[in-house]
Design a protein that fits this description.
207 residues, alpha/beta, eight-stranded mixed β-sheet, globular, Phenylacetic acid degradation protein, Trimer_LpxA-like_sf
């Protein structure tokens, strides 16, 4: 659902996908190849919200702010299921873990990773390439090249998802029995642990 508010109408690029069960309100600008999942609320009633190209805001996320504030989720920012972004700015190609809360005037640096269930306090400045966890959240180490490569691959799946949704997502009546020829989807992306294990196995074989 897309709503005007106080004469502000959201701007959404045609390559992006906003699920019908999401709500986008007011002064919101959504760039190319963005994915907005069901249950997400992006509320630009009191300030402007910009999603640059390739951003994903997954199921049940909230993006909002105090009156008079404006925020930007920079290119390829990745906001996991259930996260809350309240008046914070997200850097390019960062990852916000599931059910994390990022508070007002916080700044998440480019290519940083915020762990699931973390709480980033208001006005916190997270340097680029930081791994952040906890409540309150703290930087525990620098994000490695391999970790950001893993994150980037996952975000690329979400950048493909808008096109897939436009092409194939339809409201249907459910089947009443499981078809005999039903296939299970192939794995196209590893967990971080499995990613490192595969890399190690490949290294060992070459050695």
């Amino acid at each position: 659902m897309v709503y005007s508010f106080n004469k502000y109408i959201p701007v959404i690029h045609q390559t992006s996908f906003v699920h019908p069960l999401a709500a986008v309100t007011g002064n919101v600008i959504i760039g190319k190849n963005c994915y907005i999942g069901p249950g997400a609320a992006i509320r630009g009633d009191w300030g402007q919200i910009i999603l640059e190209d390739g951003v994903n805001v997954q199921e049940n996320c909230t993006v909002h702010m105090f009156p008079g504030k404006s925020i930007t989720l920079k290119e390829s920012a990745h906001v996991g299921h259930g996260a809350i972004i309240h008046g914070a700015n997200l850097g390019r190609n960062c990852l916000i873990g599931m059910n994390s809360v990022i508070m007002d005037d916080a700044e998440i640096g480019d290519e940083s990773i915020v762990g699931a269930l973390s709480f980033v306090k208001a006005e916190t400045i997270i340097p680029k390439r930081s791994l952040v966890v906890g409540n309150p959240a703290k930087v525990i180490k620098e994000v490695s090249d391999e970790m950001i490569a893993w994150k980037t691959k996952g975000t690329e799946l979400y950048q493909q998802l808008p096109r897939d949704c436009h092409d194939t997502l339809r409201m249907v009546e459910p089947l009443r029995e499981v078809p005999e020829n039903m296939k299970i989807q192939e794995g196209v992306y590893d967990t971080l642990r499995d990613h490192f294990l595969r890399r190690q196995e490949s290294h060992d074989k070459k050695a």
